[in-house]
Amino acid sequence: MNTNPGLLDLLALRFDPWVWLALIAVGAWYFVAFARSRREQPQLWPVWRAVLFGAALLLTLVSTQSQAITLTLNSMALYMGRLMVLAELVPPLAVLGIPRHLKVTRSSRGGQLLSVLLDPWVVLALWTAIIVFWNVPASFNASIVTNTAGALLPTLYLLGGLLVWAVILRPLPSIQGRSFGNRGWFGLLSGLPMMAVAAVWLYSPSVLYTPYVSALCLWNLTPLQNQSISGWIMMLAGLPGMALALIQLMAWLIELADGGSSGAPPQPPAA
């Protein structure tokens, strides 16, 4: 086995027909709708949104269908890098690719379902469960050595990340009536589970996951170094979301201050 693979070795594609078919179906549905909208009303669906959505599909393909998957047992850092691309990079690109003219009413079945799924407290509970449960040693070990669990974890990170970023970026304002303040607090709270896990990996004096205790790691790293680097990857991946949350909180505070200072001056009491 090559323990010092280059970037081209890691990015070489493999073929899982179900993943390829799913991505092709999603891409075809999106770009057919985009082309139809551009013919009828070009201004409603900007090209840059389609570019971002296409980038999200490409990154999903590379993260789930590259040869890096075959090296999971030899690099926790590489595994975590793939998961963070699916959880923190693909979702904002995909959400920003959603056109703003889509109208979903709360009274429709789809609107009722989405209003529940995109409720900040529901999303926060689901995301915390994904992060905490799958980073308990028994669950994380299963995701490394079991084929079924190995496919399930990236899927959950992707779906959880899509829900989190949908709350933060609010792509469906007709069913997402949340202010900057609500979204800012949500962004900060949703980033805490990842930061807590990353801190544990960074400062743990021993390797926490059995498959990596005596693993032959890539690039001459020790298992403990691999775990520490994974902590840095997770922490850095969560920083953009937390930075955006702080910006939203600041915008909310400025909005409150402007609202309090823009009122009419008090009138003198009548004689």
Explain this structure to me?
With 271 residues, the chain is mostly helical. The chain has one domain (9-255). It has helices spanning 7-11, 17-40, 47-65, 76-96, 109-117, 120-133, 137-145, 147-169, 180-203, 223-261. Helix 4 packs parallel to helix 10 (223-261) and helix 6 (120-133) packs antiparallel against helix 8. The longest helix has 39 residues, at 223-261. The protein is globular, with a radius of gyration of 22 Å. The termini are far apart. The mean pLDDT is 86.
Which structural class best describes the helix and strand composition?
Answer: mainly alpha
String of helices and strands:
HHHHHHHHHH
Could you tell me the mean pLDDT?
86
Main sheet makeup = none
Radius of gyration, rounded?
Answer: 22 Å
Low-confidence stretches: none
Helix content: 55-70%
Using DSSP, what is the number of strands? 0
What brief labels describe this structure?
271 residues; cell membrane; Caa3_assmbl_CtaG-rel
In short:
By secondary structure, this protein is mainly α.
List the helices and strands and how they pair.
Elements (H helix, E strand, L loop, with lengths): L6 H5 L5 H24 L6 H19 L10 H21 L12 H9 L2 H14 L3 H9 L1 H23 L10 H24 L19 H39 L10
InterPro entries: Caa3_assmbl_CtaG-rel
Subcellular location: Cell membrane
Keywords: Cell membrane, Membrane, Transmembrane, Transmembrane helix
